[in-house]
Amino acid sequence: MKLTILGGASDAADPLLDIKSLTRDIENFKRLGINTIRIYTIDNSENHDEGMRMLDDAGIYLALDANTPKYSLNRENADTLHRSYNDVYLQSVFATIDAFAGYNNLLLLFSGNEVINAKNNTNAATYIKAVTRDMKNYIASQASRRIPVGYSAADVAENIEFQALFFNCGTDDERSDFFAFNDYSWCDPSTFTESGWDQKVETYSEYSKPIFLSEFGCITNTREWNEIEALYSTNMTSVYSGGLVYEYTVEPNGFGLVEVGSNGQVQTNEDFDRLASAYNATANPTGDGGYMESGSASECPSENEEWEVSSTLLPAIPEKAKAYMEDGAGTGPGLDGDGSHFAGEESTATATQGADAATRTPNGSAAANGTGEGVAASVDVPMRFTTLIGLSLLFGMVLLF
């Protein structure tokens, strides 16, 4: 599969449009026995029927990022962050929803990836949460079924727990349907306790939304993948709902499971073989994994030195973007668009909590673009859906600025 490197490159490609490579790689997905892949960048101006049908036929779900390098929040500073939350950006996000909502094997949508990646940029939290809110409202207004929306966080020790609490506090229209984070703290040789994963399970034991790892797989030492057994054991399944291995193709960052030659052929490496063995030796969790069946919203964290968020109020959706809720977003800009960071109309007000929540409820079917008979015909939101993420693999590109 033709993929771009880690880092938000300007030559980002859509792996679902390269059918020859996708055919090749699905065979490797089958060898691993996975059921979910994550893709960071797609072209929302193109049709994805064939690629999604191929994944569907193989029993594979898609976890999809709604942003692209050109159409995303710009966290460089407070001004660029506010400026980048605009109607042009949201049109692209909503067009991505339109392009994929009808596919039965679309499992979930990410509203952002590692926008908060340090101790000093937690001010992005209200904008991330606003995008999550807007995506949920757009799905409720325009889609034929409910689609889980949540955030993929960087595991920043100083604020990761604050992030989890913040994205689960407030009114239901603002709360994420799940919380995911990218965790590289288990570096083999290690154990459930040596890695600190036991403490993380304890930290999130009362969390009322599904939690899973949106990236994992430390490369500090040889990847023996001993964390696979722990992740799908009863030590974790009552709190965590699986995870996504980072990443498929070998890139300059040192991660990767297959090498792509100049002739387009792929060669699996020892990481791939060890991962396949770890998956093969690990049984899928049975039943519901002991998940929490009910729970209330979290308490919003107070502002402090490590959480520079002074208010729980979110920016209001830009005025021009409101029309998309009624009329739809139209054709997306794709990967060749001019970008949105300094385009369009920004938000000019603070939202009243719950005031703009959608009143329509999707009827639960997915047939606009798909067959209506796929591997994920319906998804129960918000408590159960990530039990579907069993043994998973991640490929694509991370958005970093």
- What is the total domain count? 1
Supply the CATH superfamily name: Glycosidases
Q: Give the CATH architecture.
A: Alpha-Beta Barrel
Shape: globular
Q: Helix segment count?
A: 10
Low-confidence stretches: 1-11, 367-391, 395-401
Strand order, biggest sheet?
A: 1-2-3-4-5-6-7-10
Distance between the termini: 24 Å
Report the major sheet. Answer: 8 strands, parallel, barrel
Strand content: 5-15%
Annotated CATH topology: TIM Barrel
Structural class: alpha/beta
Please give the number of β-strands: 10
Order of SSEs? HEHEHHEHEHEHEHEEEHHE
The CATH class assignment is Alpha Beta
What does this structure look like?
The protein is globular and about 55 Å long. It has a single domain, classed as Glycosidases (TIM Barrel), CATH 3.20.20. It has an eight-stranded parallel beta barrel. By secondary structure, it is an alpha/beta fold. α4 (87-100) packs across α5 (125-142). It has helices spanning 19-32, 49-57, 78-84, 87-100, 125-142, 160-166, 197-203, 227-231, 270-280, 322-327; strands at residues 36-39, 61-65, 106-113, 149-154, 178-183, 211-216, 240-246, 258-260, 266-268, 391-394. The model is unreliable at 1-11, 367-391 and 395-401 (pLDDT under 50). It starts with 18 loop residues before the first helix and ends in a 7-residue tail after the last strand. β3, α5 and β4 form a beta-alpha-beta unit. It is an enzyme of class 2 (transferase). Keywords: Glycoprotein, GPI-anchor, Hydrolase, Lipoprotein, Membrane, Signal, Transferase.
